[in-house]
Give the backbone structure.
Amino acid sequence: MAKELKYADKASQELFNHSRKEQVPIVWDRYADMQPHCGFGELGICCRICSMGPCRIDPFGEGPQVGVCGANADTIAARNLIRMIAGGAAAHSDHGRDIAHTLLLTATKSEFDYKIKDTDKLKAVAGIYGINTEGKDPKEIARELAEKALTEFGQYKGYVKMTETAPAARVKLWKDLNILPRSIDREIVEIMHRTHIGVDAEYKNLISQGLRAAIGDGWGGSMIATELSDILFNRPLIQSSQANLGVLKEDHVNLIVHGHEPVLSDILAMVAMDEKMIAKAREKGAKGIVIGGICCTANEILMRHGIPIAGSFLQQELAIATGAVDAMVVDVQCLMPGLAYASSCFHTKLITTSPKGKMPDVQHIEFKEEKALEIARQILEITIDNYSARDKKKVFIPQHTEDLVAGFSTESVFDFLGGKYRATYRPLNDAVISGRLRGAAGVIGCSNPNIDYEYGHIEMVKELIKNDVLVVTTGCNAISCAKHGLMKPEAAFKLAGKGLQEVCAAVGIPPVIHLGSCVDNSRILRVLANVVAEGGLGEDISDLPVAGAAPEWMSEKAVSIGFYFVASGVYTMIGHSLPVKGSPNLYKYLTEDIEKEVGGKWAFEPDPIKAAHMMLDHIDKKRKLLKLKPVMYEQSYKPAK
Ligand code: SF4
Ligand code: MSK
């Protein structure tokens, strides 16, 4: 049994202890029960791809060094790793496909619950796809765009179009290395083909296909998800809100939306504000309706509607342990099957909604875009009806929330740092060039019970901003930063270095900028491309004084994200290592030699302060190569001579 959470936000700590009292097993308990983890799995050198195995390589060199088919540790570890990329890229890209499908329905149906909300963005994205928008009805443009985007998943010729928004030098490099993705699905399928028994046995060749599929995720499937979501649901709006489980209310109906795709959560957010629904909740004795998000659904409805965040990945069962959640609605990705047991300990109705994500013995209400409003109302009515079943004696809502400012996008970072009248990234580039900012970092990703919850995220981010590195964030790191007060503009004055403080004060931003959900890491790619295009910081992303990190990663999506950042030229740090340590050749390739090919590389360091220092070293190295001035102000971090 896990004993305690030492670092996490107060609400999580209190609910962790409360879950013991209520005897609800949660993720940390199952993690403790699972110890020790399988060493072969951790090293990446077990293989069960065919039934001559399963095989495993003896890491001590005494037992077998090849599998029954003759595959060695390099082949086995590389095959396993790129299958992780396939899983992650498939998840993001299938999300993108669903959004494109919703856009197509919106464009072609006369009666439909979704509308095109951002026609400027529609025209801008249509422009990337070469669609003539002159004098055309937005629905016609949307139809053409949705069809082109959907075609890209399985097209048999050409390349994924949005890769062209990367800097020209990067696109050329991808072409030269033959890793420009041809279609989104094709690269994922090719991973599965190459890793079948008896196909690709050369580890660098395997990784090259992994890079191609990952680029197809970041600059393809994920970018489609982000851009088309903005068209349908609006671009994020900069606004204040709150985060943490204290946003639930004892005297309100509480509905949690959890997962990733905004198609259902966006409509639920609207329905929850419907006067008729609120009146119905009052009839049941509640004072109103609270809707709160978990995981990336939280980020989607926060940035467009200002709806408070309830929690991150590791808080999903803790939310139920409050005893105050009348229903939890889930769609896809990062949903723990353990939710079913946790909700059976309380009155909470757990409802799955995607045909892709059911759970045994859990109520399933299939979501269909054609009946979006009707289904959203049905779900909300179930939630309201269940309020009466709540056992008041079991309710325990820790009263902890934190204020935040969120809702930034590639375009609004543009407005803020460039000024609305000078549509330019110039002030951001100038702040870096002058040394007021040391550089920038994207710190993103999940949480994992293999590290004290939030210690990795928060300590790393604090160390970076203290040393004048502007941090952009997405996913569950964003939620942790919000809960720890790092997204309040005043956080800059308490925690940031002097140069970053000056930038934050000049433009009124927090030192940590929330750019959205996991698929919105594509917004970070776009910011990087825009900074290169602005000029003065090199010709390619790999020239920039930037770094990326996922200190508490856990999902295959994080692996795909990491690979598309490496492929884009970014130094990418993660906490615990990728499962490649059983192959010293592959380990060395990913952490050293790959940089010569793509300009980015991996680094693994579980200590978040040490990891931040390695990122600072990298940023300084890039500053030196660009011959930039020294950083303007004294920094707490002194690089080793
Ligand atoms: Fe063993 Fe080779 Fe089959 Fe893998 S593919 S299980 S290493 S025989
Ligand atoms: S939800 S992938 S735990 S960031 Fe996007 Fe959080 Fe990681 Fe899921």
The pocket of iron/sulfur cluster (ligand 1) is lined by residues 47-50, 52-55, 67-69, 71, 76, 197 (CB under 6 Å). The mean pLDDT is 96. The first strand starts at residue 46 and ends at 47.
